[in-house]
Amino acid sequence: MRIGVPKEIKPEEYRVALTPEGVHALVEAGGAVTVERGAGLGAGFSDAQYQAAGANLGSAAEAWGCDVVVKVKEPQPAEYPFLRGQIVFTYFHLAAAPKLLLTTLLETKTTALAYETLEDKEGRLPLLAPMSGVAGNMATLMGAYYLARFHGGRGTLLANVLGISYGKVVVIGDGVVGQHAAQRACALGAEVAMAGLNPQRGAEFEQEFGARFRYFRSCPEAIAAEVRDADLVIGAVLVPGARAPHVVTEAMVQLMPEGAVIVDVSIDQGGCVATSRPTTHAFPIYVQHGVVHYCVTNMPGAYPRTSTFALTQKTLPYVLTLVRQGMEGVINDPEFAKAVNTYQGWITHLAVAQAWQEESRYRPLKSLI
């Protein structure tokens, strides 16, 4: 089995899909690994390290020409011509990505294995979790940064100063992103309100985070009341494989304080705030209705070394399965099989088909085997 690792070309993306240690493990398992020259430099890994681990260095075309291509972010338009029916294992977020990507995957009969829809036996999303943890921590830190007056924020410091808490943070969503965002905000000293649908999880968080944290049941009326006086709103809503619902409406944003900040971590799946639109690390914010919006679609890319270690620790066992067993290993593993979003020219994840109203191009994976 030939494994290719292209260099990420999404703007300001410096993560890499395999570390040198991961390459060594794949070579030991019988794989032949081709790493594009310079692919790991942004995360602190030299070409020489990859060569020492047993990789071949090559061009982008050579990395994409392998049986399995392992990436971090979805293929960019300049990479679409490389799609030719191989297996591509990466974050796709097809419900929110350009439709041309989905169309190209189908036309070329490329097998799209999406990190974000792979599940474990408990129904969790193990390949989304590490980057969600990074993004959750970042969401609070970026929000605090842009609350500074010289960034256009309202000038509120999220902190405890001489025993007095300053700043209100509203976290919408109680998953991994929400948990880490709330934990970081509480640690800074802010008052934190979290919207969710699992009271038991809320009770656990209240015990863990202390008196500055409270949990409320997510509904439009409650969210509207909470964001009205929030300094920072963090969107952390996830529906696996589907577009995120707009749980914060434009009307709610209009009523927020001038200079408040929104960090919409759900932007990879389209965003859970009606006024959100994708931004980049180069131009991370914009202001609408007097509210600063931070909607970077690859937030963990800002910390590529930490993010690469956290991600590849989780992805490597699945790449090893591909090396040893190929697609048969994916199909025979019910949890791994949920990563398959396209196969043999069909959409195999219903939420993706529904997001684009392409139900006629959907087939359950089992029906194609």
Written overview of the protein:
The structure is a single chain. The chain is globular and about 60 Å long. Helix 6 (176-188) links the parallel strand 9 and strand 10. The strands form 3 sheets. An 8-stranded mixed sheet has the order 3-2-1-4-5-6-16-17, sandwiched between helices. A 7-stranded mixed sheet has the order 11-10-9-12-13-15-14, sandwiched between helices. Strands 7-8 form a two-stranded antiparallel ribbon. The chain is built from 13 helices and 17 strands. Helix content is 34%, strand content 18%. It has 2 domains: 2-117 and 303-368, 3-Layer(aba) Sandwich (Rossmann fold), CATH 3.40.50; 129-297, 3-Layer(aba) Sandwich (Rossmann fold). 51% of the residues are buried. It has helices at 20-28, 47-52, 60-64, 99-107, 129-146, 176-188, 199-209, 220-227, 250-254, 304-331, 334-337, 350-355, 365-368; strands at residues 2-5, 32-36, 56-58, 68-70, 87-90, 111-114, 159-161, 164-166, 168-172, 191-196, 213-217, 232-235, 261-264, 285-288, 291-294, 340-343, 346-347.
Shape: globular
> Uncertain regions: pLDDT < 50 for 5+ in a row?
none
Total beta strand runs = 17
Helix count from the secondary structure assignment: 13
Question: Strand sequence of the main sheet, in spatial order?
Answer: 3-2-1-4-5-6-16-17
Q: Tell me the CATH topology of the largest domain.
A: Rossmann fold
Average pLDDT for all residues: 97
Q: Supply the CATH architecture of the largest domain.
A: 3-Layer(aba) Sandwich
- Terminus-to-terminus distance: 21 Å
The domain tally reads: 2
User: Strand-and-helix sequence, N→C?
Assistant: EHEHEHEEHEHEEEHEHEHEHEEEHHEEHH
Strand coverage percent: 15-25%
Give a short account of the largest sheet.
8 strands, mixed
Helix content: 25-40%
Characterize the quaternary organization of these chains.
Answer: single chain
**Rg from Cα:** 21 Å
CATH superfamily of the largest domain: NAD(P)-binding Rossmann-like Domain
Per CATH, the class of the largest domain reads Alpha Beta
Return the structural class.
alpha/beta
